[in-house]
């Protein structure tokens, strides 16, 4: 036994993660893949890594020092279950199995419970940053027991991205907490991407600027408070010219956005937790809407507004869009952190929200300067019920809201879809409302279903005898 860490699954993510591990001082890495050709391929391509190959699970287990620690990077779902089953047969109590794939957190909760019964530790760890992150330093969100963190923590710290001197990894919480937080990370990523896409569309259709010109606008925005990896790559994509047609690449890419399901998981989970992640939901639905060509083909002739979209002051409009993007982004993060807060309460995880924002500053897709402000907000008040009410964000929105409203009005008037911009604004106006028409909804529910209501002026639960003499009676709470 000479390896201190092993990797199972040597497709793009696993092989890059194994190389990252091998490149760090003190690590010797055992590798295993179901089909041996991949193992041989990785060995041949990277002799410098000093990998210890195994062709069976038994050999793999024998090559690992105790407590054995192995990171699984295989296709999420049945593949992960198969590898866990095989490892539990060759590992011993005290060993650690880490699932670094994109598992759905209820699966991680289930697997942790089952593996724990064998005395082996199971850690579901969300890993973000794609193939480059896996190789050079991802953001890592591990769940699992405190005991496994003792062994695993130093290893994960050695391979994680570093942001302002701090490794982008922290023990998120027990069992499925890491995969839960990774899921919400991806949901926020959906919202961030959709908001940027809406900003691009509004500027293009409002000013007639070319993608290359808009790339320069994004590059400029990337120097300010919107500085982020996604803004940076947006400029790169918009600058790209298609080799075969000479057109901007963005104009020859089919406008149907794909999805691998993590956005949908975020929204489904939010619905069951009762958390309004409307920006993330609209971003997810915008991808769905784009991906129904048969519906778009029949709807394309539906009427839009009569007047063409004409922006007179281009610079002022672009600045309005920048501020609308900033305010909407604050809402998206506020909603995402609300979901983590609610998930932690539901599943009994003790999640440090400030620490989560810090480990997203490097390695992952939503990395951004902005996350420092979120960390500050939670440092000031760890129990902040609504992130965007922190003074820094409240001030930022106060300075953006006039622009934000103008952009949403302009989009609606011009017939340009801006679902994430407008739903974020509605959320903002909803949550800050002194009184909501939910009172009327309660009245309707009481009318047709005797669902009862509470009153603002006295304790108790009430029902109006709608089909009788319409007097009010005290009632059982049937909420
Ligand atoms: P894939 O998701 O394409 O999975 C391929 C690997 O799974 C191969 O090593 C394959 O072995 C193995 N595998 C399968 Br499929 N079924 C198996 C089974 N029953 N037993 C053992 N091994 C099995 O690889 P990937 O794209 O490198 O992604 C790995 C994980 O990382 C996934 O969960 C994915 O969702 C996640 N991921 C994350 C990011 C990110 O940014 N964080 C990006 C991409 C992927 P074989 O070679 O024998 O077929």
What does this protein structure show overall?
The protein has 479 residues and is α/β, with parallel strands linked by helices. 55% of the residues lie in helices and 8% in strands. It is built from 20 helices and 11 strands. The strands form 3 sheets. The chain has a 7-stranded mixed sheet, sandwiched between helices. Strands 8-9 form a two-stranded antiparallel sheet. Strands 10-11 form a two-stranded antiparallel ribbon. A hairpin with a 7-residue loop joins strand 10 and strand 11. Helix 1 packs parallel to helix 6 and helix 15 crosses helix 19. The longest helix is centred in the last third of the chain and has 34 residues. It is globular, with a radius of gyration of 25 Å. Nicotinamide 8-bromo-adenine dinucleotide phosphate (NBP) binds next to helix 1, helix 4 and strand 6.
Write the layout of secondary structure elements.
Blueprint: E1 5-8, H1 12-22, E2 29-32, H2 36-45, E3 52-53, H3 57-62, E4 69-72, H4 78-90, E5 96-99, H5 105-116, E6 121-128, H6 130-136, E7 139-142, H7 146-159, E8 162-163, E9 166-167, H8 177-207, H9 211-221, H10 229-239, H11 249-252, H12 262-273, H13 278-290, H14 293-299, H15 314-347, H16 353-359, H17 371-380, H18 391-414, H19 419-431, H20 438-449, E10 462-464, E11 472-474
Parallel strand pairs: 1-2, 1-4, 2-3, 4-5, 5-6
Antiparallel strand pairs: 6-7, 8-9, 10-11
Bound molecules: nicotinamide 8-bromo-adenine dinucleotide phosphate (NBP).
